[in-house]
Amino acid sequence: MPLPFYLRSPTIRYTLVSCHKISGIWAFFSKIAVHYSLKNTAMAKSNFKTIDEYHSIFPGDVVERMQAIRELVHKVVPDAEEVISYQIPAFKIGNKYYLIYYSAYPKHLSLSSPWSENLLKEFEADLTGIKVSKSAIQFPHDKPLPLGLIERILKFRMVERDMMTRKG
After folding, report:
1. Do residues 20 and 86 both lie within one domain?
2. What is the C-alpha to C-alpha distance for residues 162 and 158, in angstroms, rounded to an integer?
3. Number of domains observed in the structure of the chain
Protein backbone atom coordinates (compact mmCIF):
# COMPACT_ATOMS: atom_id res chain seq x y z
CA MET A 1 0.00 0.00 0.00
CA PRO A 2 1.61 3.32 -1.01
CA LEU A 3 2.08 6.03 1.59
CA PRO A 4 -0.14 9.11 1.43
CA PHE A 5 1.50 12.07 -0.34
CA TYR A 6 2.03 13.95 2.94
CA LEU A 7 4.33 11.19 4.21
CA ARG A 8 6.43 11.18 1.02
CA SER A 9 7.73 14.72 1.39
CA PRO A 10 11.16 14.88 3.08
CA THR A 11 10.08 17.98 5.01
CA ILE A 12 6.92 16.37 6.33
CA ARG A 13 8.76 13.14 7.02
CA TYR A 14 11.28 15.06 9.16
CA THR A 15 8.51 16.91 10.97
CA LEU A 16 6.61 13.74 11.73
CA VAL A 17 9.71 11.93 12.94
CA SER A 18 10.51 14.90 15.17
CA CYS A 19 7.00 15.07 16.61
CA HIS A 20 6.97 11.56 18.02
CA LYS A 21 8.54 12.84 21.24
CA ILE A 22 5.75 15.36 21.76
CA SER A 23 2.61 13.32 21.24
CA GLY A 24 1.76 9.64 21.41
CA ILE A 25 -0.55 10.12 18.44
CA TRP A 26 2.34 11.12 16.19
CA ALA A 27 4.43 8.12 17.29
CA PHE A 28 2.46 5.82 14.98
CA PHE A 29 2.96 8.13 12.02
CA SER A 30 6.63 8.63 12.76
CA LYS A 31 7.19 4.86 12.56
CA ILE A 32 5.58 4.79 9.13
CA ALA A 33 7.70 7.74 8.01
CA VAL A 34 10.92 6.19 9.29
CA HIS A 35 10.09 2.86 7.66
CA TYR A 36 9.46 4.60 4.35
CA SER A 37 12.70 6.55 4.74
CA LEU A 38 14.77 3.45 5.36
CA LYS A 39 13.46 1.76 2.25
CA ASN A 40 13.69 4.74 -0.09
CA THR A 41 16.39 7.22 0.94
CA ALA A 42 19.98 7.18 2.11
CA MET A 43 19.34 9.93 4.66
CA ALA A 44 17.39 7.63 6.96
CA LYS A 45 20.56 6.49 8.75
CA SER A 46 20.63 8.56 11.88
CA ASN A 47 23.46 7.25 14.01
CA PHE A 48 26.55 8.63 12.28
CA LYS A 49 29.64 8.62 14.46
CA THR A 50 32.10 10.23 12.02
CA ILE A 51 32.11 12.52 9.04
CA ASP A 52 33.42 9.64 6.92
CA GLU A 53 30.32 7.60 7.83
CA TYR A 54 28.11 10.53 6.83
CA HIS A 55 29.94 10.92 3.52
CA SER A 56 29.70 7.19 2.77
CA ILE A 57 25.98 7.32 1.94
CA PHE A 58 26.33 9.89 -0.86
CA PRO A 59 27.40 9.59 -4.50
CA GLY A 60 30.99 10.46 -5.42
CA ASP A 61 30.38 13.94 -6.85
CA VAL A 62 28.55 15.04 -3.69
CA VAL A 63 31.27 13.54 -1.51
CA GLU A 64 33.90 15.52 -3.45
CA ARG A 65 32.02 18.74 -2.73
CA MET A 66 31.65 17.92 0.97
CA GLN A 67 35.30 16.86 1.17
CA ALA A 68 36.35 20.20 -0.35
CA ILE A 69 34.53 22.01 2.47
CA ARG A 70 36.05 19.68 5.05
CA GLU A 71 39.58 20.26 3.77
CA LEU A 72 39.01 24.01 3.59
CA VAL A 73 37.92 24.10 7.23
CA HIS A 74 41.11 22.30 8.28
CA LYS A 75 43.20 24.68 6.15
CA VAL A 76 41.62 27.81 7.67
CA VAL A 77 41.18 26.48 11.22
CA PRO A 78 43.69 23.65 11.78
CA ASP A 79 42.58 23.04 15.37
CA ALA A 80 38.89 22.56 14.47
CA GLU A 81 37.55 19.28 15.77
CA GLU A 82 35.39 17.16 13.48
CA VAL A 83 32.15 16.10 15.12
CA ILE A 84 28.69 14.91 14.22
CA SER A 85 26.02 17.17 15.67
CA TYR A 86 22.33 16.91 14.81
CA GLN A 87 23.45 13.95 12.67
CA ILE A 88 25.40 16.14 10.24
CA PRO A 89 29.09 17.07 10.02
CA ALA A 90 30.18 20.00 12.17
CA PHE A 91 33.42 21.61 13.24
CA LYS A 92 33.88 22.52 16.85
CA ILE A 93 36.42 24.84 18.42
CA GLY A 94 37.00 24.45 22.12
CA ASN A 95 34.22 23.04 24.27
CA LYS A 96 31.22 24.99 23.02
CA TYR A 97 31.75 26.91 19.79
CA TYR A 98 30.51 25.29 16.58
CA LEU A 99 32.15 26.99 13.61
CA ILE A 100 29.94 25.54 10.87
CA TYR A 101 27.83 22.56 9.94
CA TYR A 102 27.29 21.18 6.47
CA SER A 103 24.85 18.70 4.99
CA ALA A 104 23.97 17.29 1.59
CA TYR A 105 20.62 17.06 -0.14
CA PRO A 106 19.57 15.90 -3.60
CA LYS A 107 19.90 19.34 -5.19
CA HIS A 108 22.27 21.27 -2.91
CA LEU A 109 24.78 21.39 -0.08
CA SER A 110 23.89 23.47 2.95
CA LEU A 111 26.45 25.33 4.98
CA SER A 112 24.80 26.15 8.27
CA SER A 113 25.19 27.83 11.59
CA PRO A 114 23.18 30.52 13.31
CA TRP A 115 24.52 33.30 11.07
CA SER A 116 24.90 36.69 12.69
CA GLU A 117 23.35 39.76 11.15
CA ASN A 118 26.89 41.09 10.66
CA LEU A 119 27.89 38.04 8.63
CA LEU A 120 24.81 38.22 6.44
CA LYS A 121 25.42 41.92 5.80
CA GLU A 122 29.12 41.41 5.12
CA PHE A 123 28.47 38.77 2.46
CA GLU A 124 25.16 40.08 1.13
CA ALA A 125 26.54 40.87 -2.34
CA ASP A 126 28.35 37.51 -2.57
CA LEU A 127 25.21 35.62 -1.60
CA THR A 128 23.00 37.23 -4.23
CA GLY A 129 21.31 34.49 -6.24
CA ILE A 130 21.95 31.87 -3.54
CA LYS A 131 19.19 30.67 -1.21
CA VAL A 132 20.02 32.02 2.26
CA SER A 133 18.24 31.94 5.61
CA LYS A 134 19.30 33.00 9.11
CA SER A 135 20.85 29.58 9.59
CA ALA A 136 21.71 28.09 6.19
CA ILE A 137 23.28 28.88 2.86
CA GLN A 138 22.38 26.50 0.03
CA PHE A 139 24.91 25.84 -2.73
CA PRO A 140 23.24 24.09 -5.68
CA HIS A 141 25.00 21.01 -7.05
CA ASP A 142 24.64 22.31 -10.61
CA LYS A 143 26.94 25.29 -9.89
CA PRO A 144 30.60 25.34 -8.88
CA LEU A 145 31.19 25.37 -5.13
CA PRO A 146 32.42 28.90 -4.20
CA LEU A 147 35.37 27.84 -2.06
CA GLY A 148 36.75 31.40 -1.91
CA LEU A 149 33.48 32.63 -0.42
CA ILE A 150 33.33 29.73 2.03
CA GLU A 151 36.90 30.46 3.12
CA ARG A 152 36.02 34.10 3.78
CA ILE A 153 32.93 33.02 5.74
CA LEU A 154 35.08 30.70 7.87
CA LYS A 155 37.54 33.50 8.60
CA PHE A 156 34.69 35.86 9.47
CA ARG A 157 33.25 33.25 11.85
CA MET A 158 36.64 32.96 13.54
CA VAL A 159 36.79 36.74 14.04
CA GLU A 160 33.28 36.60 15.54
CA ARG A 161 34.35 33.81 17.85
CA ASP A 162 37.43 35.72 18.96
CA MET A 163 35.28 38.77 19.71
CA MET A 164 32.86 36.63 21.75
CA THR A 165 35.76 35.07 23.66
CA ARG A 166 37.18 38.49 24.58
CA LYS A 167 33.77 39.68 25.81
CA GLY A 168 32.98 36.64 27.89
Report:
1. no
2. 6
3. 2
User: With contact defined as beta carbons under 8 Å apart, do 96 and 127 qualify?
Assistant: no
pLDDT in tens, 56-104: 999 999 999 999 999 999 999 999 999 999 999 999 998 889 999 999 9
pLDDT digits (tens, 9 = 90+) for 97-111: 999 999 999 999 999
Residue 113 burial (CB count, 10 A): 20
User: Rounded to an integer, what distance in angstroms lies between the CA atom of residue 84 and that of residue 49?
Assistant: 6
Question: What's the whole-model pTM score?
Answer: 0.72
Structural domain boundaries enclosing 19: 5-44
Shared-domain flag, residues 21 and 58: no
- Whether the Cβ atoms of residue 136 and residue 153 lie closer than 8 Å to each other: no
Query: Angle at CA 139, nearest 5°, toward 117 and 76?
Result: 70
Regarding whether 90 and 63 lie in a shared domain, the answer is yes
